[in-house]
Design goal:
Blueprint (H helix, E strand, L loop, with lengths): L4 E12 L2 H21 L3 E11 L13 E12 L2 H13 L3 E2 L3 E3 L7 H24 L2
Antiparallel strand pairs: 1-3, 1-4, 1-5, 2-3
Length: 137
């Protein structure tokens, strides 16, 4: 059984001097990702969004803006493996901090006898391949 769906899970963040600017910048990034995922016939699911404020440490000059917004998301595609790698890389270029893609199979209703038939045919094919290698045909 091979996987039929690939999930790319990650997060997008933006920082700014004002909270509204950080949200606006994040929405621009998400708009690009939504259009890319839709173009590739995928689905995107927004998860939780977190807003943070970084307090400057005494004696240190902060170079990063204090307000940050982080959005987690999940993009779902069909599981054509080479395409999933390219899509993951493209989403990374668009600003998605990604974790490795997860592949998932939809549950199939398989009876015990059909499972045994599948295993039996796999064993027969393996034995046939080994026999051909031994004989040298």
């Amino acid at each position: 059984m091979s996987p039929n769906q690939a999930f790319i899970v990650g997060g997008v963040s933006s920082s700014a001097l004002k909270p509204g600017d950080a949200v606006e910048q994040l929405e621009k990034q998400l708009k690009l990702m939504r259009s890319y995922v839709a173009e590739k016939h995928g689905e995107i699911q927004m998860m939780e969004r977190v807003r943070t404020l970084k307090n400057p440490q005494p004696g240190k000059a902060e170079s990063d803006p204090p307000f940050q917004v982080v959005q987690r998301l999940q993009a779902t595609f069909s599981s054509d493996a080479p395409m999933v790698r390219r899509r993951r890389k493209s989403l990374w270029v668009l600003g998605l901090a990604v974790v490795p893609a997860r592949l998932r199979s939809r549950p199939l209703k398989v009876t015990l006898s059909s499972r045994l038939q599948i295993r039996l045919s796999a064993v027969k094919a393996l034995l046939k391949a080994r026999l051909i290698n031994c004989i040298g045909v």
